[in-house]
Amino acid sequence: MIFGKRRHEQTAQQREELKAAAAEQGWRWSDAQPAPAFELSEAALRGPERFKIWTVGLGDVVDGMVNTRPFRAARLIGYDYTTTNGGIPYGDRRETSAVWIDLPDSLPEIRLVDASSTEKDEGLPLPPLNPARTTDGRWRVEGFVPQFASDLLHSTFVTALATLPPLTAVVIRAGMILAYGLQRYDAQTIRTVATTLAALIEAVPGNAWGRADALVAGTGVFPRRVPGGAGLSLDQRLVRPDWKGFGLAEKVPWPDAPGAPKNVMLKRSQAVEVWEPTHDDAPGFSLSAQFGRATIGSGMPLGIPTVASTISQGVAAPRA
Fold first, then answer.
1. Looking at the whole model, is its pTM more than 0.85?
2. Out of the domains of life, which is the source (predicted)?
């Protein structure tokens, strides 16, 4: 109990220090904010084997400016959905810290994994590319467009990457550049990471901008049961997740995310999702419930189009 009390006091002190440091920098700090776009959550807090972590909100959110570019930093807080041996649903708290900046134009999706990091990676792995690493050997290269990786990873870009402190990965997708899995979450680290991300944007070759549609740029989210890595296919992307957290979002509202408990238990009746159809040819409701590894009801709720289908129809894929 005493160790838990000390940990709570230490966390509270660190939060106050970050709040004060952010004010000194002219940044805006907020205790909590709603969960970000699902493309960001999937990139940083999804689970590598399948989409099983539901982000409930953001904590210690910092909004600021570096080199004329607005950035946001936050702790992403979510729950890993699972069940007891008796089938009782519950969630284990998962968390990572991140800094991100919106891009001025679209770029193909790419993921650069820091081989020096010791943080657990809960983000979405992408297919490995060739060359498999940057020239300095620090970053593993993953994505879908080999030519973009070859064009992007020139000496100036890799040199800028080298200035980052240890972290899990840098990801370009869905109109943003994101660094997550920071080993320290304080004002100095946030400034260093945000400044480097801004420099990376400046180092993108001019001919790379605007050459990705919504699908290639990483808009959308992969189905919940699709594992990350080499087997991913772009045409699998949905315009929104095919699950709603099985009651986790309602169990922990986003204003409570910073102090969210380590574990939350749900009633079986809370882990049932109801989906209203969006197609005229799908009357009624679609029910989906998860008990252990078994799915009761529709494993793929009705009315969720793929990003590829929205592009083929000439409609831009929506963001969260």
1. yes
2. Bacteria
Q: 287 in a domain, yes or no?
A: no
98, β-bridge pairs? 74, 180
In which order are the strands placed within the sheet that holds 272-275?
A: 272-275, 286-291, 294-297
In a domain, 312, yes or no: no
**How far is Cα 181 from Cα 75, in angstroms, rounded to an integer?**
9
Residue 269's region, left for phi above 0, alpha for psi from -120 to 50, else beta, is alpha
pLDDT of residue 302: 54
CA atoms in the 13 A half-sphere facing the CB of 89: 22
Tokens of 222: 């992969």
Task: Write the pLDDT tens digit of every residue in 99-112.
Answer: 999 999 999 999 99
Can you tell me the distance from the alpha carbon of 84 to that of 123, in angstroms, rounded to the nearest whole number? Answer: 24
Residue 65: count of CB within 10 angstroms of its CB? 13
Residue 234, domain member (yes or no): no
**CA atoms 137, 158, 107, 303: torsion sign:** positive
CA 58 – CA 197 distance, rounded (Å): 20
Residue 273 is assigned to a structural domain of this protein = no
The whole domain housing 55 covers 1-221
Length of the chain, in residues = 320
Number of domains in the chain: 1
